[in-house]
């Protein structure tokens, strides 16, 4: 009975795992109508040849498309699972990121973050940290912010931020919340006061969008 592609893939994987001269961790296997495509990385050219020979030994393999690349120890580690591991390590080291709440998926260098966090800044920090890892070509941030903001909470944070500064008055700033969106209005005396209000709004729990309509009153 002719093997299915799934059976051939399983047997090739088992053969690579069994072959002592091959580190199969970074080798990908795809099978289509008996044609086996080997991809990924090995540490030396002889290992690349050994992987190809091992695949050829498997019954049911009609042909081999060999796309394995040799990557030396000094080369950047850009396999998907290595990228994911580095992102998780960086999350664990960053006190601003609740790493136990975030799932990381990497496919061809593209990172997808999912899960739920309590604060917008945690979502934003996770996105920025993931994007800095070498080998990452893009980040899809699907993290959800759990809490919804209240107008009073946002207003209190703006007032507290203004009070920490000299000669600033938050009394003329208006705050309206719509779900996770905060709309700022009113008047302030200078651009930097508007920036303080906006940053304070972003710092409130659950905020995912800030619409700043504050006017500068010269």
Automatic annotation (TrEMBL):
Gene3D superfamilies associated with the record: 3.30.1340.30
BON domain: residues covered: 4-72, 79-147, 150-218
Domain of life, per lineage: Bacteria
InterPro entries associated with the record: BON_dom, Lipoprotein_DolP, Transpt-assoc_nodulatn_dom_bac
PROSITE patterns: BON
Ion transport as UniProt keyword: no
Any Pfam family: BON
Keywords, ordered alphabetically: Signal
Name recorded for this polypeptide: Osmotically-inducible protein OsmY
Organism: Sphingomonas vulcanisoli
């Amino acid at each position: 009975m002719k093997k299915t592609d799934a059976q051939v893939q399983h047997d090739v994987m088992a053969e690579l795992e069994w072959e002592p001269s091959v580190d199969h961790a970074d080798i990908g296997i795809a099978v289509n109508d008996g044609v086996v495509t080997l991809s990924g990385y090995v540490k030396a050219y002889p290992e690349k040849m050994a992987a190809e020979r091992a695949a050829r030994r498997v019954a049911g393999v009609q042909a081999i498309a060999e796309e394995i690349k040799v990557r030396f120890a000094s080369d950047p580690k850009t396999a998907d699972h290595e990228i994911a591991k580095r992102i998780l390590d960086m999350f664990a080291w960053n006190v601003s990121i609740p790493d136990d709440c975030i799932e990381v998926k990497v496919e061809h260098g593209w990172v997808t973050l999912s899960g739920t966090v309590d604060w917008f800044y945690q979502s934003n920090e996770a996105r920025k940290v993931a994007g800095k890892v070498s080998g990452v070509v893009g980040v899809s941030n699907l993290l959800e912010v759990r809490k919804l903001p209240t107008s009073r909470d946002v207003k209190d944070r703006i007032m507290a931020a203004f009070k920490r500064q000299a000669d600033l008055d938050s009394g003329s700033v208006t705050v309206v919340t719509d779900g996770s969106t905060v709309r700022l209005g009113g008047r302030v005396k200078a651009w930097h006061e508007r920036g303080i209000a906006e940053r304070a709004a972003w710092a409130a729990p659950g905020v995912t969008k800030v619409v700043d309509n504050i006017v500068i009153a010269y």
